[in-house]
Amino acid sequence: MNSKFKIQNSKLFKTFAFLLLTAYCSMFTVNAQSGGTQQNLTGKAGTFAIIGARVVTVSGAVIENGTVVIQNGKIAAVGANVSIPSGAERIDGKGLSVYPGMIDAATNMGLVEISGGLNASVDVAETGNINANAKAIKGINPHSAHINVTRVNGITTVLSMPTGGIVAGQAAIINLNGATQSEMSFVPEFGLVMNFPRISTFGGFNPITGPQIVDFNEAVKRRDTQLEDIKKAIKEAETYNLAKEAYAKDKTLPFPKVNLNLEAMIPYIRGEKPIIFTAERERDIRGVIKFVEEMKVKGIIVGGQEAWKAADGLKKNNIAVVYTNMFSLPVRDDDAYDYLFEAPSKMQKAGVQFAISTGDDGANVRDLPYQAGVAGGYGLSKEDALKSVTLYPAQILGISDKVGSIEQGKIANIVVTDGDLLDPRTNVRYLFINGRLLPLTSRHTELYDAFKDRK
What we know:
The protein is α/β, with parallel strands linked by helices and 455 residues long. Strand 10 (202-206) and strand 11 (210-213) form a beta hairpin. It has two domains: 41-100 and 406-455, Roll (Urease, subunit C, domain 1); 102-403, Metal-dependent hydrolases (TIM Barrel, Alpha-Beta Barrel), CATH 3.20.20. The chain starts with a helix and ends with a helix. The longest helix is centred in the N-terminal third of the chain and has 35 residues, at 2-36. Helices cover 33% and strands 23% of the residues. The protein has 13 helices and 18 strands.
């Protein structure tokens, strides 16, 4: 009797635990989706004129009392003396500043929702080491709550990239507005993400014996083995492409069997599109430089803790750096506290093309202006700190003809604030993406409104 009771009690407990877990996950899902419904509020189109504001063009001089006209999704006019189209919705810019929308060039935006509690909301990596055919744009969740939280802080465009394996897949540039992936898409297949093999002497942690140290020579050997795997895949892609070209000229030849993985690599190994290498230490960055020279590809480095130390090779090969370590701790015990804060200014002085990025999966991309602000306090000029999150990332991503500064003809990704864009005390008053005036609402504003009057 007692045994039977225990069995029944055990079944009851398991049922209760299952229901509790389901409710717990549902709560997070509902919360994420309720924040995500803000993404459906895609604002309104029209003709707008921001009048009498301080216009920070970024690419040129500041216009202290200027007007910006937005029409058909673009900047129709900007200047001190601008004719305003009839019927335009006028926005009083007195006491306000107009900036181009900020750009974060290394995130996982839309690919991760709840990293620690709901695996189904995480789509950053595929199984296997070589996944060139994986496309971030296909996995982006347009209704992610992170999107609105980010854009209401002045970030209008991001690069969203996959992770995992050696070749992770293709990153996408997206605007932070739209109810579908296609509506958000700016450059759907921008760059191929490669987690560049590094020399690591850390072999893991054993709870009994402590850190496991790998012999340096062995670590080099492991790195070289991974590099050979990459080069082998590139050679296979080259052979596959030659077979395709030969068949196109002579249909009597065997038709090459379709290989999506190799197919995806072609524009990158040809140098038509960039490969995005993740690398931090100087020796690994110099490894990237050597790889770029040998394989004759275009390269961008994401991470770049010690990129300024390899400035010569980076400049020689036109390799830009998207720096993601502003809020990281110093790597070595004897590094100065501001070692990573000063890296952007050191890159600038060394002549390395760079941009500042949060490198975040979504929730904290909103901190981009503050990270640039810190760099402005540690050697980077105020102007360059602003450019590091506007014009510089646009140049690195090859979209500076469309965004990154306030110029006639560019896409109207515009932020209107009541203070300095990089100052944490500043509030965004108006936000435009693709010329649409967007509501300044997010999951955060919803929660604030829900709880602000409770006692």
